[in-house]
Specification:
It contains 17 helices and 17 strands. By secondary structure, it is α+β, with helices and mostly antiparallel strands. Helix 6 runs antiparallel to helix 11. Adenosine monophosphate binds next to strand 6, strand 11, strand 12 and helix 13.
């Protein structure tokens, strides 16, 4: 038999890493509840046409697409937004707005595997439908900031821009949608010169090219000063001015509501997905060059999927990259939950040990029973190796009096305790 391996770009998560991934997932789910985002679960397999409709050329080319046995052209989802938009255009179409939706799960893109880039990865996705007001954009920024703080990340900075700035210029200059999208994709990859070449070959005026160039160069950490400069550069383009104004409102709201966001405003910042129409952002930590999440406003999305026009703003938190950032910033993780082992002194006490393990689990303790029938000393040294907090030793002498031995593994001390007080004795020491 050959030694089987995972398929290129796919990963196994061994217990420590699985625990980290699930931790981020759990905190993002708790946050969804705190902000009123209701969870929806959509399928991993969707119709190719739905997923290809508005994904942007880049993602479209990298989809895991195939025919199922019934001959349907399907693909593994490369993002959540298309599925959620499908729901909003159909089953949830008549629900009152605003509507806040949350989804979390795995996505698939045939990217070139490298650090922080995988073919199967996880996102926690939040979308707010029905409001075109700056407070909705501010809420998404606030929520992302909250998630990263709750996960213990430090020194992260939000790169922020607004699609309306560039689209305003290109639209007024008569550049077609396709050319605009091409330019946006090149900008997403920081290929400024090529973007200008595309604009030039689309017969953009000299004024357009000069303004685009100026916009690409307008960036900095002092948000309001950068926005002032951006406004000056685009003053001839009405929609671009409105976009800058919109971004200012969003950032003012965030600041006035007491959220301290470290930002890097980039007037020429574009995101690869074609559906973004307004503010766009990506948080970064200094230790990793890649964006941890990606978000923004996409007011035209739902109508592209056949629904009524509904304004929308959302964010996809990249669970894998957030885990990488946590590892870089925090070093080795602590054991998430203190463990208890229950050891019967011999086979006669196995059932009692199992009974006690149930009682302890009912008190929310993480409990393992000694299932190898090893001698107590062997079982204890194994517990030591695995940094278990307490061992409960079940033997005849103590049981006669309704008691067991409770050993504090760290202090290397043990005492006899009444079974009825066992949970409290252990829990008390954790408080
Ligand atoms: P996007 O859906 O492209 O806007 O990406 C949003 C976030 O998802 C990114 O900031 C990443 O954290 C994560 N992400 C996207 N593609 C990958 C990938 N191939 N591997 C790991 N994470 C990814």
């Amino acid at each position: 038999m050959p030694a089987f391996k995972t398929v290129r770009g796919m990963r196994d998560f061994l217990p420590r890493d699985a625990e980290r991934m699930r931790h981020v997932e759990q905190v993002s789910r708790e946050l969804a509840q705190l902000y009123g985002y209701e969870e929806v679960i959509t399928p991993v397999v969707e119709s190719y046409d739905l997923l290809a409709a508005k994904a942007g050329e880049e993602i479209r080319e990298r989809m895991y697409a195939f025919k199922d046995l019934g001959g349907r052209k399907v693909a593994l989802r490369p993002e959540f937004t298309a599925s959620v938009a499908r729901l909003m255009a159909t089953k949830l179409r008549n629900k009152p707005k605003p509507m806040r939706l949350f989804s979390v799960g795995s996505l698939y893109r045939y990217d070139e595997p490298q650090y922080g880039r995988f073919r199967e990865f996880w996102q926690a996705n939040y979308e707010l439908f029905g409001s075109d007001k700056p407070e909705a954009d501010a809420e998404i920024l606030m929520l992302t900031n909250d998630l990263l703080t709750r996960l213990g990340l430090r020194n992260y900075r939000f790169k922020i821009g607004h699609m309306g700035i560039l689209r305003g210029i290109m639209g007024q200059e008569g550049l077609g949608e396709e050319q605009q999208n091409r330019i946006m994709q090149l900008l997403d990859k920081k290929r400024w010169e090529e973007a200008l070449t595309v604009a030039r070959s689309a017969d953009a005026s000299q004024n357009c090219l000069t303004t685009l160039k100026k916009v690409f160069e307008t960036k900095g950490k002092d948000a309001f000063q950068v926005l002032k400069r951006a406004e000056e550069s685009v003053q001839e383009y009405e929609k671009s001015v409105a976009a800058v104004e919109n971004l200012r409102e969003i950032l003012e709201l965030t600041r006035e509501s007491g959220v301290k966001l470290e930002v890097m405003i980039e007037a020429g910042f574009a995101r690869g997905l074609e559906y973004y129409t307004g503010m766009v952002f990506e948080p970064y930590v200094p230790e990793i060059e890649m964006a941890l999440s990606g978000g923004g406003r996409y007011d035209k999305l739902i109508e592209l999927f056949g629904g009524e026009p509904i304004p929308a703003v959302g964010v996809a938190q990249g669970v894998d990259r957030i885990v990488l950032a946590m590892k870089k910033q925090r070093g080795p993780p602590k054991i998430a939950k203190e463990k208890v082992v229950v050891i019967p002194v011999d086979e006669e006490y196995v059932a009692k040990a199992m009974e006690l393990s149930s009682i302890l689990r009912n008190a929310e303790l993480s409990v393992e029973v000694e299932v190898m029938r090893r001698a107590v000393s062997k079982a204890l040294s194994d517990a030591d190796r695995r940094a278990v907090a307490y061992a409960v030793i079940v033997g005849p002498e103590e049981l006669k009096e309704g008691k067991v031995v409770l050993r504090d593994m760290k202090k290397r001390e043990q005492r006899v305790v009444e079974i009825k007080n066992l949970c409290e004795e252990i829990l008390g020491s954790f408080r």
